[in-house]
Each structure stands twice: as structure tokens, then as C-alpha cells.
Amino acid sequence: MRLFDLHCDTAGECWKQNKDLFENDLHLSLKRSGAYAPWRQVFAIFIPDTCRGEAAWDYFRQAYAYFSDQLEKHSDVVSLCCTAGDMARAEREGKCAAILAVEGGAVLGGALSRIRELYDLGVRLMTLTWNGENELGCGCGKRFAGGLTQFGREAVREMERVGMAVDVSHLSRRGFYHVAQIAERPFLASHSNCDAVYRHPRSLTDRQISCVVSHGGLIGVNLYKSFLGKPGDAGFAAAYRHIAHLLERGAETAMALGSDFDGCEMDPAFAGIEKLQTFQAYLLERGLPVEQADALFYKNAEKFFQNLLQPQTDMLK
Ligand SMILES: [Zn+2]
Predict the structure, then answer these.
(1) How far, in Å, is the centroid of ligand 1 from the Cα of 315?
(2) Residue 11 has pLDDT above 90, yes or no
(3) How far is the CA of 301 from the centre of ligand 1 (A)?
(4) 259 CA distance to ligand 1 centroid (A)?
(5) Which of 214, 217, 212, 216 is nearest to 195 (CA)?
(6) What pLDDT digit, counting tens, does each position of 81-113 carry?
(7) pTM for the full model?
(8) What residues does each domain of the chain span?
(9) Distance from the CA of 12 to the center of ligand 1, in angstroms?
(10) How far apart are CA 297 and CA 37, in angstroms?
(11) CATH class, range 3-308
């Protein structure tokens, strides 16, 4: 089975819990993902809302150092991918293609130059906010949330200039539309669901879904039980409803998977990365055509990242 997962928090959890990326009791381990080939995985380093300024940058550097050591230690099965060529090589060698992300623009500590620094460290996408407020703008967890600040707008432009994807998951709805106004490249909601299926301020309204689609972006279906459905109804059937809704809203080329493994609590049906194979079988059984299942689990994300990770010969880097 081909798998391209747009979001997991495993890198940070390994660091915090001093665990091994290959073999662990987390949602995701390199060992338990044997069914997936090719397997591309976005590993996000999450910056807590309690961390600001230089402390946010230091936090990132510590998690990054640990994760880099893990990638080095397991370089026989995983490889950090910064270009489309890197992804092709990882695939040829049968390795997991790891793509690095930061979850929380607070990492910049208010300095635009950090975007280029992150890019040079291999970061290829960044969530502008988490649920709270930072130098870039307001997250979705704030009442009467504002949108992007002037710095946030400049950060979006700089990210696009260097070749880093803008991730609007966690962003306030106002902030979302500010991104849509200024973005010149496709942007993504790496791990966000449909508000019309199950209401939640973290989820996307139908208008937001249409907006991502019209920008050629991606929406990664999140498997967190509190976003999928009511308590006790957050298994395969609930996830299917979000996928069916995305299809109804014309998001066939935008839908993807953003598991959120190791970033939240899952229904037992989604208790680990090995369960995605069973989930795919369930979707096929429910009548999802094979091509659409592949678009969801792999193809749409692959196309987005092939485009993002091509050398930008037309731009000054
Ligand atoms: Zn998140």
C-alpha cells in the first residue's frame, strides 16, 4: 500500500520520552510500518504555546537534534528528504521518505531570517500557529480571534519565496482567509477535518474547503477522536464520513491523510500506523473506488510535494 501521511508528532514524542524511532510503543514506529511502500511521512516538530521568543527556537533545536540523531541511527530504513530527487532515492532504496515540518510559527521568535535557516535545516512546511496567538497571528483556540499580523503576512511571502509550504491547520478562520488572499502557491491544511460533518473550531468549513481546492492545496484528514465525531463514534465509519464529505465538496484532488499520530488520542480502531491498512480495506469495502483511495492515501500529497520540492530555477533563493 502506498502511504503519504501529512502529519505526525512522533519526532517530538521520541525526544520528550527518550524513545527510539524504529522500535517503540508510540502510534508510529519505523518497524511497524512495513506494509507501506513507498512510504512518505511528514514528521512535525511541535512548538508548545507556552514557548515564545528564543525559548521557542531553543526548544526546536533540541527536538531537531534528537530527531536528526534518530534518522542517522536508522539511516538503513529512513532518509530525510529535502528534494524530489531525495524522495525518489528513498523509494528506490525501500526507505521511509521523511519530510520535516514545524508545527507553530512561534519557532521564528519574530525573526524572518529564521525561515531560511529552517529551510537549510531541511524544514519544508510550517504550521503558522498552534491554537494560541503568536507573532504571526491567531490560532483557532482563541475567542474573537484575529487573523495574520503584518509579520505573519511577511512570513507567508518569505516561506513561498524559499520553497516552504504554508500549513493553515490550527489557524483562525480569519487568518486562513488572509493566507488565501496573499498565497501565490498552493497551501495545505495538513491535519484538519470537516466542520459540516462534526463541528469543531479546528475543522474547516465548506467555504474553507472550496478555498483550499481552488488554490490547488491539500486537506489531510485528521484521525484525532475529538475531531472525527461524538464520543464512542470516532472509528472508521466517522473518518469515512469526513472523506465522503470532502468528495461531495469537490475535494477529490485535495483530500489526503494527516493522521496526527502521537499528537492526540485515537479511537482503538486507529491505535497505530499499522491500522491504516485495515482502514484502507474498510474504505474499499464501503465502495470508495481504488483510485480515490490511492488519491487519499498517497497520490494527491505526492503531486503537491513533487511540485513543492522541485528546484525553483525561476526564483531567487
Ligand atoms: Zn496539530
Answers:
(1) 31
(2) yes
(3) 18
(4) 10
(5) 212
(6) 999 999 999 999 999 999 999 999 999 999 999
(7) 0.97
(8) 3-308
(9) 12
(10) 12
(11) alpha beta
